[in-house]
Automatic annotation (TrEMBL):
GO terms for molecular function: methyltransferase activity. Keywords: Methyltransferase, Transferase. It comes from the Bacteria. Gene3D superfamilies: Vaccinia Virus protein VP39. GO terms for biological process: methylation. CDD domains: AdoMet_MTases. The keyword Translocase does not apply. The keyword Methyltransferase applies. This is Class I SAM-dependent methyltransferase. It comes from Luteibacter jiangsuensis.
Amino acid sequence: MPKTYDQAYFDKWYRSAGHAVRSPAELRRKVAMVVGQAEFYLGRPIRNVLDVGCGEAPWRAELRRLRPDIEYRGLEASEYAVARYGRSRNIGYARFGQLAELRFDTRFDLIVCTDVLHYLKPAEIRAGLIGIGEMAEGLAFLEVYTREDDPGGDREGFFGRPARWYREAFAREGLIPVGSQCYASPRLARHVAALERL
């Protein structure tokens, strides 16, 4: 049986006291860190965000708390999340691999993809990263856990790849690691000092 990302899944891993993988305070700190880093490299406030594999779009509220006028676009492969929140939270249906062809009328100051890649097969990751590299104007926050980590949470379908595998895949698309799972876009290469590159 393939895993189903339905309401029960989100209730368990994002709201249940016994299983939730993060607290609201942790999410708030993470979003603030990522926004700060993106704006540091862009040299201006972020204007738009693409959130890939956004689930129920928890980042949207935190982003709007920090930047009320931000343009938020979510993409999600859960039929439940898109049906329930698609219109109200601007979430469209797409799988990560579809980013190889999917384009919008703008590049994004920030692209977010949290807790997704370690559940995908290599071909889908490589395909989607093409789009990340091409659509990122500023920063990509690619939160991934590897065989070297012990992230807790949902282990069903988890691929424990070595960190080296992801580093090489990101580098192929010109993404520059700048710490805390943030990657500067190829367009920002001249703004990233040698010692900032991990």
